[in-house]
Predict the 3D structure of the following.
Amino acid sequence: MNIIWIIVIGFAVGFIAKLLMPGRDPGGFIITALLGIAGSFVATYLGQHFGWYRPGQPTGFIGAILGAILVLIVYRLFTRR
């Protein structure tokens, strides 16, 4: 159930990250959602591994947004024209 929750939050996080980092991206809706899910996974597991927060804490949502922004930055670096 935890993974399903991360995916659901990842969709929202992807759109929030896109709003915080406006600009042209080669991907559309699907890529934005996938980047949000990837960022959510990265932030959730790294944050819990390093002990920054426990499962279910609101800080996890903020961490997921930061993780999605990081994934979006890396994505933009590799898909630059």
